Amino acid sequence: MLNSLISRRRLIATGTLASAGAALSKLAFGAAPADAKPTLGTVPAYLGSSPQTLPPLPYAENALEPVISARTIGFHYGKHHRAYFDNLHKLLAGTPLAQASLEQLIMQTHDQPNLSDVFNNAAQAWNHNFYWNSLSPVATQPSEKLQAAIVRKFGSVEALTKALVATSASQFGSGWGWLVVDQGELAVVKTSNAETPFTRGLAPLLTVDVWEHAYYLDYQNRRPDYLVATVSQHLNWAFASANLDRI
Ligand code: MN
Description:
The chain has helices at residues 8-13, 18-29, 70-92, 102-109, 116-134, 144-154, 157-169, 216-219, 223-233, 237-246, and strands at residues 175-182, 185-192, 203-209. The protein has 247 residues and is mainly alpha-helical. The chain folds into two domains: 3-34 and 67-134, Helix Hairpins (Orthogonal Bundle); 144-246, minor pseudopilin epsh fold (3-Layer(bab) Sandwich), CATH 3.55.40. A three-stranded antiparallel sheet has the order 2-1-3. A hairpin with a 2-residue loop joins strand 1 and strand 2 (185-192). Bound molecules: manganese (II) ion. Manganese (II) ion (MN) binds at residues 76, 80, 128, 209, 211, 213-214.
């Protein structure tokens, strides 16, 4: 039976998961034979395949001080980011999607209101993976290719960083600011809550987190101060350059 592949016990034990579990069963198998592999959303070729496992922080928790404190990163990485993975494990244990990549989960669930719990936790897990790598303790430079694209679209790196700060600061409520490639051109965009640009065909190069948990311990309500300091001192242009090369 198709449903035997979903953990009935878990769905019954966690009532809020019942509808999501039924929806997962349906979307994973559709009308396919019981022994078919789950059909997952198409993941853009430039994206990797991220496991449902919290990756190590790419630097020490105090490496971005004084711009972002070790205390902030301790909570942000150790509590918030970890919780998104823990939530995913609870949601997907015993289902065919327990081994899916974050990218597959995001592409499969982003337009499925009854799977918003899965989407939100998968996308937040992925966005935070990307955020830690978007920051660097040491100064970095754009590649020649990225530099040329920046100059072509924004005029200068300084103008781009101003646009990124302004757009990110203007996000109403929780969300993210992004440098993306949109149909071959660089662009600065913002997304709400867990939304991530690649579900709408935009390839991310860099992100900054503007959820309050990213800055409130250090900056309280002064989101623009967090953004100016972070964007001017800690953006990882090498990471952005590598992402551009993969597109
Ligand atoms: Mn965050």
